[in-house]
Amino acid sequence: MDDRCPHERFGLSGGELVGEAVRCPGHGWTFALSDGRAVRGPEGMRVRVFPVRERGGNLEVDLSDAREADA
Ligand code: FES
Predict the structure, then answer these.
(1) Nearest to 2 by CA among 51, 66, 57, 58
(2) How far away, in angstroms, is 7 Cα from ligand 1 center?
(3) Residues 6+ apart with CB under 8 A from 7
(4) Shortest CA distance to 32 belongs to which of 50, 51, 19, 15?
(5) Of the four, 5, 14, 56, 66, which is 20 to 30 A from 33 by CA?
(6) Mutate to test the pocket of ligand 1, among 2, 23, 24 (most ligand atoms within 8 A of CB)
(7) Which of ligand 1's atoms lies nearest the C-alpha of 8?
(8) pTM of the predicted structure, to 2 decimals
(9) Across-strand partners of 30?
(10) pLDDT digits (tens, 9 = 90+) for 13-61
(11) All domains in the chain, ordered by first residue
């Protein structure tokens, strides 16, 4: 998932794993790992998630959508 929280851009990588979601270290909004939707925070808020696959013992993340959105 995208590292930046849509609230005030805190890094979600510094957050806490809560079940199958990540809690933002800023103000506690929490996002589902499966689809990025806020499970705690404003309704309809979400972060981008990216497809991940395992191949040959490595994890590969498809960031092609991220590049298009950030262009
Ligand atoms: S910056 Fe993430 S909840 Fe405020």
Answers:
(1) 66
(2) 5
(3) 24, 26, 27, 29, 41, 45
(4) 19
(5) 56
(6) 24
(7) 1
(8) 0.85
(9) 23, 40
(10) 999 999 999 999 999 999 999 999 999 999 999 999 999 999 999 999 9
(11) 12-70 (2.102.10.10)
